[in-house]
Give the backbone structure.
Amino acid sequence: MGETRSPETRPAAGTPPPVPGPRPSPETGRRQRRLTGAVLFYSVLAAVLGAYTLLAFDMEWSTQAGRIGPGFFPRTIGVAGVALSLVGLVTSLRSTPAAETDGTESGHHPALVAVIGVALAGFVTVFIPVGAPLTAAAFLLLMYFLIDRKYIVRRIILSLAFPLFLYLFFEVWLNAGLPAGLTAFL
């Protein structure tokens, strides 16, 4: 049967129902946090990227000729990765369990994750013999096909535009060199 509430405990009209979250601990009065997969993931990722960044700072920032050195991109990637993983860690710590289970089944796609893992292994394997532009275009086309099946034209444009941008950025502007492979004529 229906439960009747007194006017003092009934929520006001138009207000959302209270969201259950971590309850305050009786001993400390602070909210208890549980260790979720996201918290563990971001913690480990921040630690690994922190170690990577420390190694990157041992590399030279620039060469004697004035070009960017071997430590330029690892430092940039390491610092950005640590910052982003710490943002993810704080966000996952601040979220409530109700926010984590919003009805979607995020993280429950083992077949897709396995296919992406195999595709990454194939990408690394053929990157040098086939060349960076062709390998990146094929890899992105496959990933967009797996993840975004609706917009075929957008998928093709992004799969071709991003490798072209990387080629122009590294080969033409930075003169850093990418594996040429089959595209040595460029």
Notes: Residues 72-94 form the longest helix (23 residues).
